[in-house]
Structures are given as C-alpha cells and as structure tokens.
Amino acid sequence: MAYNEHAACPCGSKKSYKNCCKIFHEGKYPQTAVELMKSRFSAFVVGNIDYIISTTHEDNIEYSENKSKWREDLQNVISSNDFYSLEILDFIDGKEESYVTFKVGIKQRGLDVSFTEKSKFLKIDGKWLYRSGEFLDD
C-alpha cells in the first residue's frame, strides 16, 4: 500500500510526507543524524525497505550481506507492527559521530511494544548511517 504523500509525515514534523522525509527516501542525504533517524522511522511506516538497508552501517548487528533475506525480515517487522509515533528526547551532534535518544511508539497485534533507544550514528564518506542502538528503561 502506498503512503499518501500529502498526509502528515510520520516523523512528526507537522510537514507533509512529500515535503519532509520523502525527499530523503528519494535520494537526498540527511544532513544530520536526527534527520536520518526521523527518515528511517518514516521508512518503517511507509515500508521503504531499501532506504532502511541503505542507511544501515555494515557493523550494525542487523546488517546482512544476504539482502533478500534481510528484506524479508524487514518486511515481516513492518507488516506485523504499527509504528505510530516518534519523539526525539536528546541529540548529541558531532562531525563524524552523533547520538539520538528517542522514544518510538509501536503496537504489535494490539499490544504496546514501544521503547526508548539511544542510537549511534556515524558519518561515512559524507553520509550518516545508523550504527547501533541501546535500549533504555522508560
């Protein structure tokens, strides 16, 4: 199912998806780790698996050389979860390494499985990539 580009962007920016995260999903590079975080969350909402894969650092635990299996795993995550909110709690900006702490709202078969995470992002060849995340107690 295609996401309505005129609907509010899933990242919570109050802009339309077309004027927010869609530009990153179509090839513009996020300038900050926060932009990458928000656009990755939106990619889970709209089902843009290729964007999720292309913005994941190769040292990430989820990273796989077997892209078809990885795509299948991501599709299962996307189809079995309702990603409904994102709240940025903290941002530590750096030139090559940044941290974003966020709370993501997720429901899985009606159960709230929301979590808070502190994510590490690395800038490699001018592009921000998601390196790792640590779950935090709410």
From TrEMBL:
Pfam hit, one: YchJ_M-like
InterPro entries in alphabetical order: NTF2-like_dom_sf, YchJ-like_M
Coiled-coil region list: none
Domain of life of the source: Bacteria
Signal peptide (from-to): none
Domain (YchJ-like middle NTF2-like) ranges: 32-133
The protein, known as: YchJ-like middle NTF2-like domain-containing protein
